[in-house]
Amino acid sequence: MYRTILVCLDNSERAGAILRTALAIAERQGAHLVGLHVVQDVVVSIPTEVSLEYIDQARQAAQSEADAIGEVFKTATAGASVSTEWRREEPMAGDADTVWTRNALVADLVVVGQAAGGADVPLTDLLIETGRPVLFVPYAGEYAQVGKRPLVAWNGSRESAGAVFDALPLLKDASLVRVLCIDPDKAGAKAGLAPADDMALALARHDIRAEAARSHSGEISVGDEVLAQLVDHGHDLLVMGCYGHSRLREMLFGGVTRHILQHMTVPVLMSR
User: Fold this and answer.
1) Residue 114 carries which DSSP code?
2) Residues 238, 160 contacting (CB under 8 angstroms)
3) Alpha-carbon gap, residue 104 to 99, rounded angstroms
4) How far is residue 251's CA from residue 135's CA, in Å, rounded to a whole number?
5) Comparing 110 with 45, which gets the higher pLDDT?
């Protein structure tokens, strides 16, 4: 079970939808929900050759945005059946990354929104680097129900195994989990070491109904095949490992991971 869920809110436009997803999970899990907004340091984020008046206006705008997000959190969590906590932090110049990391490290699950037009790469990379499972909520749509029909993107790697076990609290509520290996004949030795069938059996021992599945990408990319599977089988959650190495991992996450982060149509739980 998740006991602490951190929801990262960096803009007011999608805060309500992201919160509703996080709160629904928290209430199913009986988890404490922490909302976090880090007030933007306008001195760091704007050009140096601007007037003091412009800087003052930018600071006021950042404070107004933080106030708006705080109100959204207060409204969304009013009457919640679990404990909630609002954190608004205003770090010194250049310390925003430290604040996000410090809060994420002590959470069982981190929930964050996909930026309009694709993933917010700096924040995405930062959260992934904490080693905590991160649930990305698409920038369009409502996702109050997450995890009834999950899809696991499986390739037999350490990262994909870690993501599955990090997702167990969500998977336990599923009616059926599909463990999908795409192009198994091309997946290499890793998939052979731990076939999708073995992971499906491992999930069954947790009293989770699961089945192994295989598909072939053919003329399309693996990322597009994953997205197609989500639609064709009515999945409401994707669980996958995050691949690549070090900061700005593999020039921002490598092909499949980057493609999913940019084009996700359902919430995606990633882990590394």
Assistant:
1) P
2) no
3) 9
4) 21
5) 110
Q: Any idea which fold 150-271 has?
A: Rossmann fold (3.40.50)
Q: Which amino acid is at 193?
A: L
Intervals of CATH 3.40.50.620 along the chain: 4-137, 150-271
Q: Is the C-alpha dihedral spanning 189, 190, 194, 200 positive or negative?
A: negative
Report yes or no on whether pTM surpasses 0.70. Answer: yes
Find out whether 244 and 157 touch, Cβ atoms under 8 Å.
no
Contact present, 126 and 253 (Cβ < 8 Å): no
pLDDT of amino acid 246: 47
4-137: CATH homologous superfamily?
Answer: HUPs (3.40.50.620)
Region label for 209, one of left (φ > 0), alpha (ψ between -120 and 50) or beta (otherwise) = beta
135-186 tens-digit pLDDT: 999 999 999 889 999 999 998 888 899 999 999 999 999 999 999 999 887 6
Query: Please, are residues 159 and 243 in contact by the beta-carbon 8 Å criterion?
Result: yes
At 250 the pLDDT is 47
The helix (run of H) or strand (run of E) holding residue 211 is: strand 210-215
